Amino acid sequence: xxAITSGLPATALAATTAEPTLAELxxxxxxxxxxxxxxxxxxxxxxxxxxPETGGxxxxxxxxxxxxxxxxxxxxxxQGNVLVRGLKGxxxxxxxxxxxxNAAFFxxxxxxxxxxxxxxxxxxxxxxxxxxxTVHGSDAMGGVVQFVTPSPTFxxxxxxxxxxxxxxxxxxxxxxxxxxxADAGGERWALRAGSSRQDIGLRRAGGGDTLPDTAYTSHGxxxxxxxxxxxxxxxxxxxxxxxxxxxxxxxxxxxxxGQSLPxxxxxxxxxxxxxxxxxxxRGSAPAWLADExxxxxxxxxxxxxxxxxxxGSDVREFQRNTSRLDGLSLQLRRQAGDTLALRYGLEAYxxxxxxxxxxxxxxxxxxxxxxxxxxxGSRMDTSGAYVMAEWQPDAAWxxxxxxxxxxxxxxxxxxxxxxxxxxxxxxxxxxxGLSRALDAAGEWRLVANVGRAFRAPNVFDLxxxxxxxxxxxxxxxxxxxxxxxxxxDLGLKLSRPGLDAEAxxxxxxxxxxxxxxxxxxxxxQGQAIVQSRNVSRLDxxxxxxxxxxxxxxxxxxxxxxxxxxxxxxxxxxxxxxxRIPPVYGRAELSWRPEGYFAWRAWTDFAASQDRLSxxxxxxxxxxxxxxxxxxxxxxxxxxxxxxxxxxxxxxxNLLDRRYREHGSGVxxxxxxxxxxxxxTGP
Length: 682
Known about the structure:
The chain is globular and about 70 Å long. A hairpin with a 5-residue loop joins β34 and β35. It contains four helices and 39 strands. It has a single domain, classed as Maltoporin, Chain A, CATH 2.40.170.20. Helix content is 3%, strand content 56%. The strands form five sheets. It has a 22-stranded antiparallel beta barrel. Strands 3-8-9-6-7 form a five-stranded mixed beta sheet, with no helix packed on it. With 682 residues, the protein is mostly beta strands.
């Protein structure tokens, strides 16, 4: 079992630092369709993680490390990826405040874009495990991960303001994390504004080695305004800006397994940026339409800049790809009777890609245009409508069932020898689930789900051109079709005073999976030429467990463990699936008494993984003999020094173990001493 204890309740500007949480099984889940529901009764597998403390993570997705069904992987510091039930990248839908983060150039592999969500500006992270296309459309094959940012606070007793300042330093990477924020409001208005910064130095791995090319900087700003239009309706305007000016690609700049020299002389994500604006109304609806509604319109701009120079080359390459994603959605809820509620909605997204590339000859100083990774003017349009029925005939039964119709079109202009692509299709998805109380008190519940999901081929699938990790070179394929998956799970939930626990088994059949296939040709530079094709069948199954026990006031013991297995078939052969994590989890014991001090001890762990796909076995980021098992020991102490001022001391990886999380491109940090504070007012 593995775990980490629940943090203190999150407020607008909490006076205490939230501890990491693992299995908040009794938390209210604010799902991505904006309607809050009790996680104990939901007929689905869910995880809700509280806000990580300042300095607790480098990347927002690290808040899900060790949780049931989610496995964290990191190719290079400053970015990260989470596998949900063995699926990753664009196979998992990522949302920020209910708006899609997945852009048209997301790849179905680890990518850097989740590193552009500010980890210091989070209220909670939610995971819906399993296929969720009925409500959420394309990409929700493994599940949905939603980042929820804090809302400003209305004050019915008169205008007022709060402020927060927090900082944390960790010796393992000389990392300094800092945030300042203010929250002001009155009866009819509220405002929240903040600024975050991370300055990360070179990482020290276990055993003492300092890893080059691991330092980076990120900074973010955010503003959120809210107006109470009437007693049952609010209007919100939010804006977020988060940037990484230059982040080195560690795995390309340092030799991996089977390599004597690195792949590149230069390679960096430079710059990476995300800007996001959203206007949202939440409240009552016209009586003829619904009881409640959420109407929102937003724009997300993702900037993906890269600088690279191949080993032995005098030509430096620059690329800048920008996604401008506009979205409009309407979510509705109606209580159709004493036992029946309906949720239904519409949404439409339009993504436009701007792409440019150039080369600089370092010998002559001559710059020239170049063929970029994507084609300028590529676009992707998606739309859909859904209806979900929730039937609760009595306190024991809770049933969900729904349908969704989706339509998509992806267009990539022709460029040079690469043909144009225009793929359009529609899809019908369905989902059904039940939750059944097994005892009179409703403490034990049986949960079951079955659903179908799909993923539309995006601009990356259809038109990506250029080098890929592992000395490969990708050619575009204009003839791709959508991927589909059918998944079912069965679970048991226990919720009683002082104890929450769950166990789920699941199975997924993934068809027409888009996989990178070796064509048998090589480039003049010796890179293996690959192409994405609908050639694979993937079968996944696994077991997810979690427990949260509070045996006495102030004491908590929590744990989680997950096992996943995947088999893939293509071209008549069968082999282990890509990047399937080993058995992994977390365990924690903590004591938070009524007083000034609190302490916690926790361990992260993973077993060995030697079931590698053919591609994993040749990936320089993964040991061809398999990834060895590991565990860490970590200690933390909190001290409420003054009212509003909390100090924190941590020792992570106390035994200084050197290890690498499976599929990652860089070793994890070694022993690190962390010092931090959170100061709130007035």
